[in-house]
Amino acid sequence: MFVRSDHRMTLLKFTLIIITFLCAMTVKYTLKAQEFSLGLKAGPLLSRSVIADKFDRKDFSQRNKPGFMAAGLIIFPLKNNYSFETEVGYSQRGRKILSNADTWTNVATYNYADASMLLRKSFQIRIIKNVPTQWFVNLGPNISYWIGGRGEIGSGSLQSYDIVFGPMPQEPPQPDFDKMYFTDVNRWLFGINIGAGLITPLRRSHRLLTELRFTSGHTFYGKPASASWRTLGFSDNLRANEKVLSLTVAYLFDIDLKESRKGKSTQDKDVHRKPIRKKH
């Protein structure tokens, strides 16, 4: 079972690399470099961890964990109503796990630096008269770097802790019940984004983009015994990946360099134009 799962993970990572390469090649040869949109996006999300092996799942109950994300983005228009989007941002995701017959609760918040690339197809839709609205679908790879995190764990009253990437020391210099140690974890996490949404104009060169997105994580956090905490009865399993549902709103600024240069050129001509001498 472990061999089959590892083989599946290798195949998924290879698929993500291929998708990334195709997106890059598409942009290189077909994007209109004179036009693009810049924007900022933010919104809430729900994340849920899924333990890989079904025989281990019976020992844990998994719950949704609320969080949020924010990012900057750039969108390049392509041909035939396609566009390419790149995002770089930050998110708070995490896990809520119940163990020991649901008597123990572990609520963890993880901090990530995120990057994603999306190939988007847009379609015209009429919702309000004289408002040129578009709906779209998009698909692309997602990469997250695990910065760190914190959480609360216990039975009854909860103990706060910070995550430490490294082995748990045998003899700590002082009590370390406020630390949870993670070893053999994957801090680079890969996934696939699938989303749909609406783009509505606000005023000239300004648009609003609303998107509902599902991110399917394919990299495991770590191994079954990657998490250590200095308390008897502690149990966790990091051989799990995450599924994330987010709802975000982005404010877009459309930029046309060709039109900007044309306007500047016209102004320069007006400045350097010789005055007409009147005949007396």
From TrEMBL:
Protein name as annotated: Outer membrane beta-barrel protein
InterPro entries, per the entry: Beta-barrel_OMP_2
Record-linked Pfam families: OMP_b-brl_2 (PF13568)
Every Outer membrane protein beta-barrel domain range: 33-216
Native organism: Dawidia soli
Transmembrane segments: 12-31
Keywords per UniProt: Membrane, Transmembrane, Transmembrane helix
